[in-house]
Design goal:
Helices cover 4% and strands 54% of the residues. It is mainly beta. A hairpin with a 3-residue loop joins strand 17 and strand 18.
Length: 751
């Protein structure tokens, strides 16, 4: 009981401090059962684990039921030794522990020691079935994707996995993330070494790293436990490499251009394309500072991209960008019970963007901008093994992202003007200088009590947006018809998200595992005045799943789960509806206002006020049901059959009230928006997968998904209008636009 009180005491301390709390998996776990030749459990057998990813060794003893669990093992391959004074020692080689998963050795049977004999060495990988999980998704190690002809960004690896598709915007040349399980690209979460690198402003990916830095990648699309912060789409979790007792490293380089590509057929009179070149070179190195005590890892990869873009009448101009991808890690084993990892990642970039107009402009300045993008993150993680059955994980992290696009020339600051022929002049029409920060920290405790594995955690996350975005242009429709839009969003807003969870993984029998838990997330949206403008606190998320092993333990299982999953609101919403530092002006003149600005008619405006708090505002969430079957075929093959059903229960949108023209942000179908229909989206899918490893350099992962997405709401990315801002869909602007509005959204993929 002392372990329980210690866990509660530590959770209380962390909940009381003011620094934000957050945690995310960066390790895996190993379990099994040790039996004698007659199938009876062996108590107090010694389990010893060694491997290049582990500082020193880890050991534990089996319980009275012969079971053992190794918590928080770094991902990688291990040698597992099983010994007892009355039995022959057994060694299992090449046992791979995967990110966020349970690797099981199944039933390990020891022979009685009747005379002095050598140990038994088994050179075979552990069983492929995870007996503890009801989750859907996949895990890939570096050797699975590093030789494939894919894009350099690790995000491109995700497209190889089932229930992941190219996004609607991506297919049109955009850069928003992929669609997961019927959702849109802005509904996912991304983690690197436990750092939440999702863009807190819009939900897109914030930090991109080349896959050369990535040791292992895990994707979750459903069925996961209460400990994991949820998303309406899926979650991608990756870990970078760590150092070791041996110095290792790699160097790499990539080059591509359009010299050997055919000239594409283009739109008549469209500007011609110029030379395109992209190349990057990088390295990584890791090793010991103190053997088995302090390791280091460092990686650097600068990337350079140039393209000659034609501005009609002004020739070719170079569009260029330079990105510096970085990753570093210090791993310190303070003593046998405590270890720490300090991680740094980033992808800061700079460049000049050149937009290509279809009509020859009067000057080039409206189409030249200087851009600065990318993020930088830091994280300190602590792993504290209080005893074999009690483990504490702590973490503190910080992430900053910059998005800046400013005029590249002095004249670019002038008023942008489009004449009646569509000819542009003056300066740029839009500028951006946004800074997003996310400060997080967290604590979780895992306690093994007999057949139960209890886990509890407290979290707190703080996201902030310092926004400065302007759009201004004067348009001439005729000699007596001029129109100007003058839009600006400036101010500091945010979202504070406290969380907590409690869950139990119960070995009800040798074959039946039941996972049950509950999670709570609160949201406190912060206005530009620094006060709480909106609270969403009724976000309880029950999750339960069961897995039953058929036949020989560890070779087959059937599983099912139910869960409720909320997604946090991005800061783009508060920047519009809880920000007094903004303007939205539409002004018309019957003369050219550049010479006489008087006499303008303001035909439209947006209230620069903080929207009043809604007492009944609900968060956005869905309910999910899954059912599946997995079977191991031979020693290195696995087949899976899974079904999933998701239904959106609540969403948040901005809607226009017809009689007043007021724009209200809330839940369509309730409150002040009760004249609108409720937001609907359902996703049903049947997934078939086959996975086999023939040897280290040859493996197969094949999948087929039959799915259907249906409803009146495409998702946080507005596929209907190409609007990349969440909770601001054009679909729900008017009631009339939703008549006969249910059907298949653009991101539906049948096969």
């Amino acid at each position: 009981m002392r372990s329980v009180f210690l866990c509660i005491f530590l959770l209380g301390i962390f909940a009381a401090i003011s620094f934000p709390l957050r945690a995310q998996e960066t390790t895996g776990r190993l379990e099994g059962r040790v039996l004698d030749a007659a199938g009876q459990p062996i108590a107090y057998a010694n389990i010893m684990v060694t491997g290049p990813g582990l500082q020193g060794t880890r050991g534990t003893l089996t319980s009275a039921q012969g079971r053992f669990v190794m918590l928080a093992l770094p991902v990688g391959e291990y040698t597992v030794s099983v010994s007892h004074v009355s039995y022959k020692e057994m060694k299992l080689e090449a046992v791979r522990v995967r990110l966020g998963r349970t690797t099981t050795l199944g039933d390990v049977k020891l022979e009685e020691r009747t005379y002095t004999s050598q140990e038994i060495v088994v050179e075979a990988e552990a069983l492929l079935i995870d007996p503890a999980s009801t989750g859907m998704g996949a895990t890939l190690v570096a050797r699975d994707y590093e030789a494939l002809p894919i894009e350099r960004d690790y995000r491109s690896v995700v497209v190889l996995l089932p229930q992941v598709n190219e996004s609607y915007l991506e297919s049109k040349g955009g850069r928003d993330p992929e669609n997961f399980a019927g959702s849109t690209g802005l509904e996912n979460r991304y983690f690197i070494d436990g750092i939440d690198v999702s863009d807190s402003y819009r939900g897109a990916l914030s930090v991109r790293l080349p896959y050369n830095f990535i040791q292992e990648l895990q994707m979750r699309t459903g069925g996961y436990e209460a400990e994991h912060r949820s998303a309406l789409g899926g979650a991608v979790n990756v870990v970078t490499y760590s150092g070791g007792n041996e110095v290792t490293g790699q160097a790499f380089g990539y080059f591509t251009n359009n010299t050997l590509t055919a000239t594409p057929r283009s739109v008549p009179d469209a500007p011609s394309t110029g030379d395109f070149t992209r190349w990057d070179a990088g390295f990584s190195v890791g090793g010991p500072i103190l053997k088995d005590r302090l390791w280091y890892f460092a990686a650097y990869n600068p990337a350079f991209q140039t393209e000659d873009v034609e501005i009609p009448g002004f020739g070719l101009h170079e569009d260029h960008a330079t990105t510096h991808s970085i990753a570093g890690k210090l791993t310190w084993r303070a003593n046998e019970k405590n270890s720490f990892a300090l991680t740094g990642i980033g992808d800061p970039g700079r460049g000049r963007t050149v937009a290509s107009p279809l009509i020859q402009p009067k000057n080039i300045d409206p189409f030249l901008s200087e851009a600065r993008t990318g993020g930088v993150g830091l994280m300190l993680e602590g792993r504290h093994l209080i005893s074999d059955g009690f483990f504490i994980r702590t973490s503190v992290s910080w992430l900053r992202r910059d998005d800046e696009s400013l005029p590249a020339t002095e004249r670019g600051t002038e008023l942008n003007f489009i004449d009646s022929m569509g000819v542009a002049s003056g300066g740029v029409s839009e500028t951006t200088d946004n800074v997003s920060t996310t400060a997080t920290a967290g604590i979780s405790c895992t306690w093994i009590a007999g057949d139960h594995e209890l886990k509890a955690g407290a979290e707190y996350k703080d996201t902030r947006l310092n926004q400065d975005w302007t759009a201004k242009s004067l348009i001439e429709f005729g000699a007596t018809d001029y129109f100007m839009y003058d839009i600006a969003f400036k101010g500091k807003v945010g979202n504070r998200i406290p969380s907590g969870f409690l869950q139990d993984s119960w070995n009800a029998t040798d074959r039946l595992r039941i996972n049950a838990g509950v999670r709570w997330d609160g949201q406190f949206l912060i206005s530009s005045e620094g006060a709480v403008a909106q609270r969403i606190i009724d976000q309880w998320q029950p999750r339960i799943g069961a897995a039953y092993q058929i036949g020989r333990p560890g070779t087959q299982k059937i599983f099912a789960s139910f869960g409720r999953y909320y997604q946090e609101l991005m800061t783009s919403g508060p920047s519009w509806y809880y920000n007094s530092g903004q303007r939205f002006l539409l002004i018309g003149w019957d003369h050219d206002p550049r010479f006489d600005p008087a006499g303008g008619d303001t035909s439209g405006s947006f209230n620069a006020e903080v929207q009043p708090e809604l007492d009944d505002l609900e968060g956005q969430y869905f309910d999910e049901f899954t059912l599946g079957y997995e079977r191991q075929l031979g020693e290195a093959a696995k087949v899976g059959l899974r079904g999933i059903y998701r239904t959106l229960r609540q969403g948040i949108e901005d809607c226009v009230i017809g009689d007043t023209g007021a724009i209200i942000w809330g839940n369509p179908g309730s409150g002040d928006l009760d004249m609108f229909p409720r937001m609907k989206r359902s996703y049903s899918a049947l997934e078939i997968t086959y996975q086999q490893r023939f040897f280290d350099d040859l493996s197969i992962l094949a999948s087929y998904v039959l799915s259907r997405t249906h409803g009146n709401y495409p998702g946080l990315f507005d596929s209907e209008y190409g609007n990349p801002y969440p909770n601001a869909s054009g679909v729900f602007d008017t009631v009339e636009g939703l008549l006969d509005g249910e059907g298949l959204p653009p991101n539906d993929r049948t096969h």
